[in-house]
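Exercise 7b. Backbone tokens:
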């Protein structure tokens, strides 16, 4: 069922603390942890605790939790003292999505090109 933990989902396992991660913030509805393969000096993933395959499906099913993810992205940026940062939601394999549990990449700490690749 949408929102329920999935046994084969890496990020559900991080939420459950069955897989270790460098957690930087946690709320009732979200977890923020450092990306294992950072693409910038700050590269933190903010995920909802509930399982949805991507950000749009999260927003459709549980919009208040999608808003929590965005609020937490700002909280991470504040904690990391980032004036500017980028939030990325890769959606679909053609856009680089590899984990099918909604997640925001929060990237900062260096100049960020526009448009992205
Ligand atoms: P995406 O490619 O947009 O689906 O993003 C998935 C991200 O998860 C990638 O940037 C990976 O580096 C990151 N990742 C994969 N496994 C882990 C892990 N165990 N801990 C932290 N980040 C991870
Ligand atoms: Zn999941």
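Sequence design result:
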């Amino acid at each position: 069922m949408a929102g329920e933990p999935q046994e084969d989902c890496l990020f559900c396992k991080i939420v459950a603390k069955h897989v270790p991660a460098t957690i930087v913030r946690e709320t009732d509805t979200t977890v923020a942890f450092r990306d294992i393969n950072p693409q910038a000096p700050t590269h933190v993933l903010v995920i909802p605790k509930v399982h949805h395959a991507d950000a749009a499906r999260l927003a459709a099913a549980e919009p208040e939790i999608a808003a929590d993810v965005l609020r937490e992205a700002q909280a991470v940026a504040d904690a990391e003292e980032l004036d500017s940062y980028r939030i990325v939601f890769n959606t679909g394999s053609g856009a680089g999505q590899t984990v099918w549990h909604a997640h925001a990449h929060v990237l900062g700490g260096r100049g960020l090109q526009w448009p992205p690749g």
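Instructor comment: Residues 6, 9, 11-12, 51, 101 surround zinc ion (ligand 2) (CB under 6 Å). Residues 63-79 form the longest helix (17 residues).
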